[in-house]
Design a protein that fits this description.
Layout lengths: L4 E7 L3 E8 L4 E8 L6 H16 L10 E5 L3 E2 L4 E2 L12 H8 L5 E5 H12 L8 E6 L3 E7 L2 E2 L30 H5 L1 H10 L12 H9 L3 H25 L3 E5 L7 H14 L9 E4 L6 H14 L10
Organism: Streptomyces pyxinae
Family: Belongs to the ROK (NagC/XylR) family.
InterPro entries: ATPase_NBD, ROK, ROK_cs
């Protein structure tokens, strides 16, 4: 076990998880509360404070040197504020300032949840050993993050790599973000299910009409379900290829609930990438499923905090 110790928070619309994490990625202490996502901002902050209080009550807290926070977005790391779409009580909420006050002035580093997942995959997952990587979370939405030249690249506000809002259909459906034809509007779980339902697919009586059921139907050969996943895969491939062409990533790591479909998603994704990643310098792009699992948010928040704890360059990652 490394003597380096940081605290980590993973804040989403359903749960607020906390942990103490050592410099080798070992999770030593855990705490968790449900997110009161429909309550006011102070009530949500109260749940964060409860998680931190539980971590602070243990004997290891005295060794903690920094706090990393991975939050549903948008986030603004430049101001330390968060405005998660799925937590309406937080709009421009000063999370970094409040967390610093609760923890007695610890250094705090805030990143978006897609960037946190990227940090985790580069540190202890499928992107380990790659200096240039794109990592995607394909779930209710589509998020992502970048590692460039061996360093996490969150951008000025902590949102760089947000591949879900690259437009891949110029005249496509309007996206809630304000643009059209975004990757997320085609490849997220709800939109995979929406397209399948619009084209005549139906779940078993009493069954869930979500993307997991569409994946099961595609696995069984249902042509509408297969087509919905193939369309999602093409959108992802177009976004990945555009990113790789722009910044020359070597690997694209895909995680999140939709990635659980396995080859139903990955087989057409690899096929489509051969079409979209056509230039010679992106031909060798590797696509791999994420490996950090359900702890990715916590590990990524810790990975983001460790350089702060070491007083290192702010965008470097643990080795």
């Amino acid at each position: 076990m490394s003597a380096q110790l940081v605290a980590a928070l993973d804040i989403g619309g359903t749960k607020i998880a906390g942990a103490l994490v050592d410099g080798d990625g070992g999770i030593l202490v855990r705490a968790r509360r449900p997110t009161p996502a429909r309550e006011d901002g102070e009530t949500v902050m109260g749940a964060v404070e409860a998680v931190l209080a539980e971590l602070m009550a243990g004997p290891l807290w005295s060794g903690v040197t920094a706090l990393g926070i991975g939050s549903a977005g948008p986030v603004d790391a430049s101001t330390g504020t968060v405005s998660p779409v799925n937590v309406p009580g937080w709009r421009g909420f000063p999370l970094v300032e409040r967390a610093r006050a609760v923890t007695g002035g610890l250094p705090v580093r805030l990143v978006g949840d897609g960037v946190a997942m990227t940090a985790a995959e580069h540190w202890r997952g499928a992107a380990q050993g790659y200096d240039n990587a794109l990592c995607l979370v394909v779930s209710t939405g589509v998020g992502g993050g970048l590692v460039l030249n061996g360093r996490l690249h969150p951008g000025p506000t902590g949102n760089a790599g947000h591949i879900g809002h690259i437009s891949v259909e110029l005249d496509g459906d309007p996206c809630p973000c304000g643009s059209r034809g975004c990757v997320e509007r085609i490849a997220s779980g709800p939109n995979i299910a929406r397209r399948a339902l619009e084209n005549g697919w139906r779940p078993a009586p009493g069954g869930d009409p979500g993307a997991e059921a569409v994946a099961a139907a595609a696995r069984a050969g249902d042509p509408v379900a297969v087509a919905s996943f193939e369309r999602a895969a093409r959108a992802l491939a177009a976004g990945i290829a555009a990113t790789a062409t722009l910044v020359e990533v070597e690997i694209a790591v895909v995680g999140g609930g939709v990635a659980g479909a396995g080859e139903v998603l990955f087989a057409p994704l690899r096929r489509s990438l051969r079409e979209y990643a056509a230039l010679s310098f992106v031909h060798g792009l590797t696509v791999a499923p994420a490996r950090a699992g359900t702890d990715a948010g916590l590990l990524g928040a810790a990975a983001a905090a460790l350089p702060v704890a070491r007083d290192d360059a702010p965008a470097s990652l643990p080795g």
